[in-house]
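Deliverable D4.2, example record:
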Amino acid sequence: MVDANELRAADAEAESLYDEGGAVRPQFLDDVVAAVDAEDAPRVTALAADLHEADLGALVEALDPERRVRLVRLMGHSFDFAALTEIDANIRDEILEELPAREVAEGVRDLENDDAVTLLEDLEPEDRAEILDALPAVDRAQLQRSLHYPDHSAGRLMQTTFVTAPPYWTAGQAIDVMRDTDEELLPDSFFEIFIVDPGHRLLGAVFLDTLLRSKSRALLEDIMSADRRRIEVDEDREEVARLFERYNLVSAPVVDEGGRLVGVVTIDDVVDVIQEEADANLKALGGVSETEELSDTVLSTSKSRFVWLFVNLLTAFIASSVLGLFEGQLQKMVALAVLAPIVASQGGNAATQTMTVAVRALATRELSRANAMRIIFREAMVGLVNGVAFGVLTGIVAGYWFESPGLGVVIALAMVTNLVAGALGGIVIPQILARLRVDPAVASGAFVTTVTDVVGFASFLGFATLWFKLE
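Output generated by the structure prediction step:
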């Protein structure tokens, strides 16, 4: 049993690494920098060797670029390469490219398969091949097999170290074998043992709590769960995360097309997937590449953002062309030019709210063809209610401002029209893009903004033309 005082001491030590803002504490960072500059390997190791991999990763990121590789080299075998999975991908690749292939291979050998894949998958093919060649044949074969699976698949996400047993073993036998097995041959942590036939096809699983509660003579085939949720090796990792969420899993076996057990996905890997997908969707809604990092260069960042800025420019010209159709009316009534952007902007804000909900619902499969019409009707009614509310409010302000009750009526009608259009555009456009197999998180914004700008300008200026009989 772990001593409570030891836990409190460990927590205090971890907390002391960071300041109130969550950054690595300056004094600690200065101590590490001084030790690295002095090439004092024992001091560097004493400071950093016992850090959790996430904390060690934070320390590496906090160092200047030229000191990062020196820290790794000074720590030698004490450096936990799992820390590199916790840092910015660009920084990780820079460090790996600077280190000798044999040194990286030594670090990779001690990692779980999924962490090793994370380190190697983004490297240049020749750099990756050099590191793989430096690994023992068994480790190299396992990693090469994982790297051959499609990007974002369960095969890239899974661990290949797991515990199996035949169905005719007893609970006591299974416990004895695990107890007598070399610790290095077992996973760092695991929750179940998998029951397989002679062809290594998955039959079921026995959770460790079930195993420990069972009688020593109980056969594994009698206490196993035969309906264990399983994942296909080429299944998309978003589907894997959805499976974990739906069934509250902590781990799940991965099988190939023949039903043979090839790996296991654990909850810690799924948490990373959920965070990465949420981050990617957030960036996509802003027209930013999902691979963009804070460490990217100015040129690469500018290039990645250029495309959607260019698309937005084209759509802005489309919206402006609507204003050109009413050039004469704008010249006769300056108030129209002042108020038109308000209608378009409010419609755009309403559309963005709806679009955000729609994109998330599509990603989580909450929005489907079965309930699409009900959701569209609901969003249209929300747009109508808000349109009436803001139409009345804006109409009163505009009528009082320009001393024209008629202008207040015009902008109120336009506000209702555009908020309904924005709500419909925000819910319908993402669904259309999804059916066309275009990522709605990436592409919806430009199209929805165009709809609200065009409808906003056209409705406001059109109603004004009719109301005031402008030519």
